[in-house]
Amino acid sequence: xxxxxxAAAAAEEAVRAxxxxxxxxxxxxxxxxxITRAWTELEVHGLGRALRILRRxxxxxxxxxSPFLEALTHVQEGVVHVRVGDWGAALAALDAVPDDAxxxxxxxxxxxxxxxxxxxxxxxxxxxTAALETARDIAAAHGLxxxxxxxxxxxxxxxxxxGDLPKALGRMREADxxxxxVSRDRARLDHAExxxxxxxxxxxxxxxxxxxxHAQADRHRLEVGEISLRLARCDLLAGDLDRARSHARTxxxxxxxxxxxxxxxxxxxxxxxxxVVEGTRVESVVADLxxxxxxxTGDSPADRAAVRLxxxxxxxxxDPDAxxxxxxxxxxxxxxxxxxxxESLVRARIALARHRPDDAERHFVEGNRILAAHQFLSxxxxxxAAMALHGRRLSSSDVERALAGGDAADVVRTVERWRAxxxxxxxxxxxTDPELTDLTRELRRLRRLLGDSEGAxxxxxxxQVAALEPQIADREWSLAAEGAAAETSTPLGADExxxAAAAAxxxxxxxxxxRGTVHAAVVTDRxxxxxxxxxxxxxxxxxxxxxxxxxxxxxxxxxxxxxxxLARATASSVAALDSAFDGLWPGDERVVVxxxxxxxxxxxxxxxxxxxxxxTVAPSLTRWVRGPAHRASPAAQTVRALYGPGLVRTxxxxxxxxxxxxxxxxxxxxxxxxASSRDVVDALGGARVVHLAxxxxxxxxxxxxxxxxxxxxxxxxxxxxxxxxxxxxxxAACDVGQFSTRAGDEPLGLSIALLSLGACAVLAxxxxxxxxxxxxxxxxxxxTLARGTDAAQAWAGVVEHQPDAGVFCLYGSDWAAxxxxxxxxxxxxx
Amino acid sequence: MTPTPEHEFLLAAAPLDEVDDLVLAxxxxxxxxxxxxxxDLLDRIKFSMxxxxxxxxxxxxxxxASLATVRGTEYDRVETxxxxxxxLSVMVSTEPSGAGRADVLGWSSEGLIEVELRERGRTRTTxxxxxxxxxxxxxxxxxxxxxxxxxxPEAPPVITPAIxx
Lengths: 830, 165
Prior knowledge:
The complex is a heterodimer. Chain A is an alpha/beta fold. Among the domains of chain A are: 183-278, Tetratricopeptide repeat domain (Serine Threonine Protein Phosphatase 5, Tetratricopeptide repeat), CATH 1.25.40.10; 281-323, no CATH class; 434-478; 494-618, Nucleotidyltransferase, domain 5 (2-Layer Sandwich); 625-812, Rossmann fold (3-Layer(aba) Sandwich). In chain A, 58% of the residues lie in helices and 9% in strands. Chain A contains 33 helices and 15 strands. Chain A has a ten-stranded mixed β-sheet with strand order 3-2-1-4-5-15-14-11-7-6, sandwiched between helices. In chain A, strand 2 and strand 3 form a beta hairpin. The radius of gyration of chain A is 30 Å and the shape is globular. The two termini of chain A are 56 Å apart. In chain A, 57% of the residues are buried. By secondary structure, chain B is an alpha+beta fold. Chain B folds into two domains: 5-34; 41-164, Immunoglobulin-like. In chain B, 23% of the residues lie in helices and 35% in strands. Chain B is built from three helices and eleven strands; from the N terminus they run H-H-H-E-E-E-E-E-E-E-E-E-E-E. In chain B, the strands form two sheets. In chain B, strands 1, 6, 7, 9, 10 and 11 form a six-stranded mixed β-sheet that branches. In chain B, strands 2-3-4-5-8 form a five-stranded antiparallel β-sheet, with no helix packed on it. In chain B, a hairpin with a 4-residue loop joins strand 6 and strand 7 (123-127). The radius of gyration of chain B is 23 Å and the shape is elongated. The chains are: A alpha/beta, B alpha+beta. At the A-B interface, helix 26, helix 27, strand 8 and helix 32 of A face strand 3, strand 4 and strand 5 of B. Chain A: InterPro entries: CHAT_dom (IPR024983), TPR-like_helical_dom_sf (IPR011990).
């Protein structure tokens, strides 16, 4: 229950009740009370008092000649040391329990669980696995549900330490389903830890903030300290140093009051990390860490982290030799992704300080390879994107290095190295997950009901939706990638990109941000150049202004006196944004743009300097060149066109699109009405070209809940088939061409999800789209496409005649129909 | 003969006592029940006084509903109001901006006009840009109105009816 004050009071009362009794039974009972109360004393008064009580209990147990009770004191001492993060002391205490001690199965479980935890703390995977599996088996054999829950949850933590996040999240979910009467607070903290390692920092922070409120209300001081410590690490990872410092300060004070020295040291490490990142008090950090690390063997993850930080701090003081000497003690050990990337960063910076740029680049490349390898373990688009957060400092340093060097080819190669790393991995594939399917089906049902509800019913449904969405995200995070299907490919260098530009007759423009400035790296068949474009906030303001004008224009009532005003305002916003890219794409060749995160909602085809020119917007240049090619075995059904409810022109549009591909009169085609979500998933799983005309929504905060609305409710990015079989998808809907990026410039959204899952090219809009304008543009587009014109060229022709359709753009790679019209199989309208 | 003052005159001259309070409270309850004060009366009084003091034209609400023929459900919820008066049209739209607040985005048919946002306890002023755009960030939700002063010194200011953000 976790009511430590009440437990301490009850134990006091029990001791008083036993006062004056001098028989064996009373002695033994007193020992048992002491063993139990050591736990509550730890929480209420700290480690010192807990250990004193246990020592007294042990003396009494020996006096009473009870090997059983004596063994129990050792088990409990191990438990207490585990709780404060002192793994060595915990193992020593647990090893003191004789093999033949007469413990019952529940106590044996406790012994093995805590032994396992201590080994987890030291990252000793084989020992931890053996201990936790023993505990799990004993618990299962004796029907000890609570112990089995703990053993299983800790096996999940072990997968986490072993770097397998999907497995960790999956095991945590399985354990959490058990009907165990165990407080889930600790489990939640561990869950937050895994989310943090996955880079899902906002989700981790929200779980921890909830837990903190409970811990404060229940006055669980040790817990408050530990949660604050983890919040500080969230802040640090997200780059919010002020908040990190405040959380670390709280953690240190609280943990010190409970003498949890292992955890106090961890909190001190976080504070020192902040100092080093900020460049403040670095001398004193070096002095403190030198003391701490003297004679360190670099065995435990905590020791290794301290050594790395000392090296970074020494480097910051201008002493690369001392930094390198410090790192030399590390050798090879098991580290988390964050820790490994930190080491790459420090080693790269040491090389830079010694004017060895090639060595530095080698470390950056290695860090990048490790990041990609970790991303590849998960089939969750969310986790793949979020993990890039751990590479944030490494990628910034690498790009700064390249920019400072002034070699355009190096800048192009470096930017490409860090760009949308998750899109270099082959299309995400994973078996269909029945649970994810069920959960999204339920969400669709609720969302649909919500759309038709008002008042109290709507409030209740909104709460249900809000509760279900994190469950779906959580399920998606635990999906592992199918091993054989996924491989990372290396990013392309400048020479290869120039060759690709020559082959396609294209100008490649990669936009990236460094130290608050947007730059453009431009690659053509003959030249490479890098230009600064301007401060990030200025460009963001221009994009926001255009976006607002476009939105206002979309909601104008017919005959509104504001039509001319908004047409003028939109035109001026487009012109202002266009001038920010002045000179990047002279001439009339085709253009490939890779936008940085801040430019995710730019309607590129709408810019006057690009109007009528084939434009492709790619997650990375590597993705544009190596995007999934045409399928080896063409899908049986080549074109599917589907529409959602609630719009007048979508039905006729779908009929005309099918007529464009298969001939005949659109009016002749049978119309079965709006399609269902199942139809959409089936189409994307089988047809070569899929056209979807429906209401669309981009969710900025949770991009994988972006959707198009079908007859039975929305189809979410979360439930797209893995892989998507369709080569080209047209999303004739509002907004779903937008994407959101987390730190690390990994894009996420509905169109981007289609690309991640295997679609070659997606046509979609970044702004609102009028029903009739979409109809006309889409029909014209498919007619051109069906004649064999490539997608970017076909769309350029459409925009030339219908400039307002420029809010749509082609995403991914270039694509053309391999078998021009008239030979496709029959496809009915749905 | 000087008439003896009536009893009620004497009472009226005396300070209010408990009985007066009781009677007034009952009267208030009676009116509150049978003929309550309109909820927006105070705002209307303030509004009328503003018009009088500014010698302003009152804009009419031209349209307040979005007729969404666009392919996004989100736009059903966009709150947009258009006002017009004496050749000047203004459209304002809101975007959520944190708890209990909204960003107000506006477009007017004339550029460079001065726009005053009247909230309950305060006013803020900005100038529309060349294309007539103006923005107020983080406005507390509730009733607001706008006063628009045109660049032509002869043109009277225009005040909009209060709208709920």
